[in-house]
Write a structure and sequence with these properties.
Length: 473
């Protein structure tokens, strides 16, 4: 059996967006499940719009998602000699020809066809000429492929089943521009042929290109690959996904605190399912994903579902893995993750409480630096008359503990509640505000244990001083 070889071939005219990432994921999973090879090709022939920054964004996005490639990246701009060789083959065999039509003539023909309510298409004027015509000759002739005039092409698509195209509906495709540069449909066929691509998984906006590409494969004496055209992704308003829906760079999801596995989990479910299962790890996806089971209908992007999946993956992931992705977000907040309490311990304490790593980072800052102020609402609710005495009592008891442990700290909170005849919350919440600056943290005994005796006592003492400095009445 021939080894499966797939490719992801983005154009570096922008970032790696949601649609491109899903296409790459489907190709990658299909390859990994069948023990094949995954090729990365950068289709950078649009020199005006392609940028090194976009290439780097694509590579960084794939690296963050964990979509490793076995070969590449290959750049089309470094392969022009290969395209010229195959172009000459088609010219020599009569399967391609020079078209000398000027832009003005082509526009005139197009307008006449539209006036007759016909489908605009090249009229074949130069198809059977041995040389330039006698009038209206372009100084830079293009090269066109000689498309069969009769019969049809059947695309046996893994997702859409059999799709038929009549050759009479296809005009003679330009495969090289007047300056000699090859066009998209030609370069992609040459690349897939020479790179031995067996399975092409791509967006369904390419479906109409496929019959033309099949003709080119056959003209070059090659067997076309298997095709799978993935349906588009829609926004919640039913329109094609765009920036206004959140079709942003996948790296923005990293900045917003999403785990890559959560985004992969969400993307694979935009068109594929396995029973009622919602949460998958990557290894499960490799074992279960089947390109033939992808739905042929468009999918709707739901940010709320993605957020829920992210929370699930944060809760289920191993602490070292979450910590690795959390550390850069803390560094962005001027925190050295290695200079304070153990980061993995913080993750374990916060995993059940955070929907994103940004939320986890913001809620964990107090472990690394003292609050510069108390949240107004939290202070108003929890710093009442008599709170200073309770906090001062706890301060002395905590400083004198023979053992600094969550159990011993819990005992101090319990004893203070009994002494002042108040509920546990009237003790724990003021301490929480004192040490964190707000009303939310992990369980107070665990929080103080991790914060350490000296830091805890210092922060409680500072809260007592602040309370006694406030005007009364």
């Amino acid at each position: 059996m021939t080894m499966i070889r797939t490719r992801f071939a983005p154009s570096p005219t922008g970032y790696l967006h949601i649609g491109g990432a899903r296409t790459a994921l489907y190709s990658w999973l299909h390859t990994r499940r069948h023990g094949g090879r995954f090729v990365l090709r950068i289709e950078d022939t649009d020199r005006e719009r392609s940028t090194p920054e976009a290439v780097n964004a694509i590579l960084e996005g794939m690296a963050w998602l964990g979509l490793d490639y076995d070969e590449g990246p290959f750049y089309q701009t470094e392969r022009f000699e290969r395209y010229r060789t195959h172009l000459q083959t088609l010219l020599d065999t009569g399967q391609a020809y020079y078209c000398y039509c000027t832009r003005e003539r082509l526009e005139r023909v197009r307008n006449e066809q539209l006036a007759r309510k016909e489908k605009p298409r090249y009229d074949g004027r130069c198809r059977d000429l041995d040389g330039p015509p006698s009038d209206e000759v372009s100084s830079e002739p293009v090269v066109r492929f000689r498309t069969p005039l009769e019969g049809h092409v059947v695309v046996d698509d893994a997702i859409r089943s059999k799709v038929q195209f009549l050759n009479a509906e296809l005009d003679d495709l330009i495969i090289a521009r007047g300056d000699g540069s090859p066009t998209y449909n030609f370069t992609v066929v040459v690349d897939d042929l020479e790179m031995g691509i067996t399975d092409v998984i791509r967006g369904d906006d390419h479906l109409n290109n496929t019959p033309r590409q099949i003709h080119l494969y056959e003209a070059l004496g090659a067997q076309p690959p298997r095709f799978a055209h993935v349906p588009m992704i829609l926004g919640e308003d039913g329109k094609r996904l765009s920036k206004r829906h959140g079709s942003v760079s996948v790296l923005q999801y990293r900045e917003e605190g999403y785990l890559p596995e959560a985004l992969l989990n969400y993307l694979v479910r935009l068109g594929w399912s396995h029973g009622d299962q919602e949460v998958f790890d990557v290894e499960e996806l490799i074992q279960l994903f089947d390109i033939n089971e992808v739905n042929h209908s468009a999918s709707t992007f739901n940010p709320s579902k993605l957020l829920w999946l992210n929370q699930q993956h944060i809760m289920r992931s191993e602490a070292p893995h979450v910590a690795r992705h959390l550390a850069p977000l803390l560094a962005e907040r001027d925190v050295d993750p290695g200079a304070g309490p153990n980061l993995e311990t913080i993750v374990r304490m916060q995993q059940e409480r955070a929907k994103t790593l940004v939320e986890m980072a913001d809620n964990s800052l107090f472990f690394y630096r003292r609050p510069h102020a108390y949240e107004e609402k939290a202070a108003r609710k929890n710093f009442k008359e008599g709170t200073a005495e309770i906090l001062e009592h706890c301060q002395h008891r905590l400083s004198g503990l023979p053992e600094w442990s969550a159990e011993a700290i819990h005992g101090v909170v319990t004893e203070a509640a009994e002494t002042f005849e108040v509920g546990m919350g009237k003790v724990a919440q003021p301490i929480r505000v004192a040490v964190s600056g707000g009303a939310v943290s992990p369980p107070i005994d665990q929080t103080l244990e991790l914060l350490g005796r000296d830091e805890t006592v210092a922060r409680v003492e500072a809260a007592v001083e602040w309370l006694r400095s406030q005007p009364t009445g």
